[in-house]
């Protein structure tokens, strides 16, 4: 049907557009924190939201046209209905107990939208190849833009503004910069960390980490060409230029795992591939010439925010402070460091705990477990594709110990949704494939 085919093409475009943060921000009174506009509180209509919403409308329309409504009373659908009511009840309780119910309502609507993205990708297994191609193409675009920004030490501007590139130079206040120190120079050099079209270089690093790993891990040997090698090099250079410690270390560990621990080829081929390990370790070692100290301001801020998150949870442990409301909860924390840099705690798990509370975490975890056990006996056996997608999710989960963008930022949320969908698509049996 034309509607479903159109939704298929829109979803490919959506995956490619993960890097694009073009959006329309709204600034009602409840988005202010101590009189300042805060991005994390602003309801924003992103281009990617529009693409996902249109795809969802077309998909639902196509499904309703061929739905057998007599099957809605089946035992399986009744279970789904009960689980939906549980999630809906958790959301209502979380919104009702939120510091700002408006912020929480907005965040829960995004949960629904990204939940659809995950569901759609998971049930369209035949499209996985196209989604991966779109992911890599978007990463290559971001890499080239990031390299250009680094060489120019400022944003490129022009048409790139329309895809979400912010206007900045190395002297822009609060812009992400880093010091590069080498044994050959007496002092460190201050450089701009490239953003491409992302909200922060760390988010760009996490995105490139996953895209580069999946690109190299899944590429077929007979498809390797000069242009393929060039794409790998450009993406690798861009990843290093982000200076995201967590992303670079995690990427190195991913490749060590890929080429050292899951190879089942002949010992000779294994010996050839194991050569990659020292090269990866050299990259990691070179990376640590960057200054890193427990007295760095960023480390102190993150540590204080971690303690703040624990205090917020202790004071609101039942229902949490409301999805998306962590920043507002800092008003009750008496520490000047929070008011110099207003941002969520750089730990996804502490952030989820403080915003959802005990009821939210336990309830949603229970729903996920029931769904998994329902389909577990029908799941396909774990294969290489499954392991690659699982490793990518674990990598993002590890980075989540040191950052929050998978929970708070549009691009990070969309990336996680796509990866979960790809993982599930590699396990779901063919009969659940809705792409005809």
Which keywords apply here?
single chain; 436 residues; mainly alpha; two-stranded antiparallel sheet; two-stranded antiparallel ribbon; globular
Can you tell me about this structure?
With 436 residues, the protein is mainly α. It has one domain. Helices cover 60% and strands 4% of the residues. It has helices at 2-16, 47-65, 75-96, 101-122, 128-152, 201-218, 226-241, 245-260, 267-273, 276-287, 297-315, 326-329, 348-376, 384-399, 405-408, 410-425, and strands spanning 23-25, 32-33, 36-37, 44-46, 177-180, 189-192. The strands form three sheets. A two-stranded antiparallel sheet has the order 1-4. A hairpin with a 2-residue loop joins strand 2 and strand 3 (36-37). Helix 6 (201-218) packs antiparallel against helix 14 and helix 8 (245-260) packs antiparallel against helix 10. The longest helix has 29 residues, at 348-376.
The number of domains is: 1
What class, by secondary structure content?
Answer: mainly alpha
Radius of gyration of CA atoms, rounded to a whole number: 22 Å
Mean pLDDT, to the nearest integer, reads 82
What's the total number of strands?
A: 6
Quick one: overall form?
A: globular
- What are the segments in which pLDDT stays under 50 over at least 5 consecutive residues? 263-279, 281-295
In short:
By secondary structure, the protein is mostly helical. The protein has helices at residues 2-16, 47-65, 75-96, 101-122, 128-152, 201-218, 226-241, 245-260, 267-273, 276-287, 297-315, 326-329, 348-376, 384-399, 405-408, 410-425, and strands spanning 23-25, 32-33, 36-37, 44-46, 177-180, 189-192.
């Amino acid at each position: 049907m034309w509607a479903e085919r159109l939704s298929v093409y829109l979803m490919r475009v959506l995956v490619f557009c993960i890097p694009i943060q073009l959006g329309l921000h709204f600034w009602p009174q409840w988005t202010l924190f101590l009189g300042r506009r805060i991005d994390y509180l602003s309801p924003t209509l992103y281009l990617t939201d529009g693409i996902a919403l249109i795809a969802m409308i077309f998909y639902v329309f196509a499904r309703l046209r061929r739905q057998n409504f007599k099957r809605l009373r089946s035992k399986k659908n009744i279970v789904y209905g009960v689980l939906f009511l549980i999630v809906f009840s958790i959301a209502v309780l979380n919104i009702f107990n939120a510091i700002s119910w408006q912020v929480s309502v907005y965040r829960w609507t995004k949960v629904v939208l990204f939940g659809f993205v995950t569901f759609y990708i998971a049930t369209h297994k035949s499209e996985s190849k196209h989604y991966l191609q779109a992911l890599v193409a978007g990463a290559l675009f971001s890499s080239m833009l990031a390299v250009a920004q680094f060489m120019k030490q400022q944003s490129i501007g022009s048409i790139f503004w329309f895809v979400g590139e912010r206007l900045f130079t190395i002297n822009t206040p609060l812009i992400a910069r880093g010091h590069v120190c080498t044994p050959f120079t007496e002092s460190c050099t201050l450089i701009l960390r490239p953003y491409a079209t992302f909200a922060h270089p760390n988010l760009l690093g996490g995105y490139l980490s996953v895209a580069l790993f999946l690109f190299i891990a899944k590429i077929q040997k007979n498809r390797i060409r000069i242009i393929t090698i060039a794409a790998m090099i450009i993406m690798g250079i861009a990843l290093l230029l982000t200076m995201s410690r967590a992303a670079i270390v995690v990427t190195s560990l991913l490749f060590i795992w890929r080429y050292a621990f899951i190879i089942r080829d002949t010992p000779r081929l294994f010996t050839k591939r194991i050569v990659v390990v020292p090269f990866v370790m050299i990259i990691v070692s070179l990376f640590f010439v960057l200054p890193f100290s427990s007295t760095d301001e960023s480390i102190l801020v993150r540590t204080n925010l971690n303690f703040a998150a624990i205090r917020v949870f202790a004071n609101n442990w039942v229902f949490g402070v409301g999805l998306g409301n962590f920043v507002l909860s800092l008003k009750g924390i008496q520490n000047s460091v929070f008011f110099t840099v207003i941002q969520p705690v750089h730990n996804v798990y502490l952030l989820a705990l403080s915003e959802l509370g005990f009821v939210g975490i336990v309830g949603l975890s229970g729903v996920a477990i029931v769904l998994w056990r329902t389909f577990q006996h029908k799941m396909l056996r774990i294969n290489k594709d499954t392991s690659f997608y699982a490793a990518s999710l674990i990598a993002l989960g590890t980075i989540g110990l040191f950052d929050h963008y998978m929970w708070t930022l549009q691009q990070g949320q969309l990336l996680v949704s796509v990866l979960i969908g790809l993982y599930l698509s590699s396990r779901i049996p063919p009969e659940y494939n809705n792409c005809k």
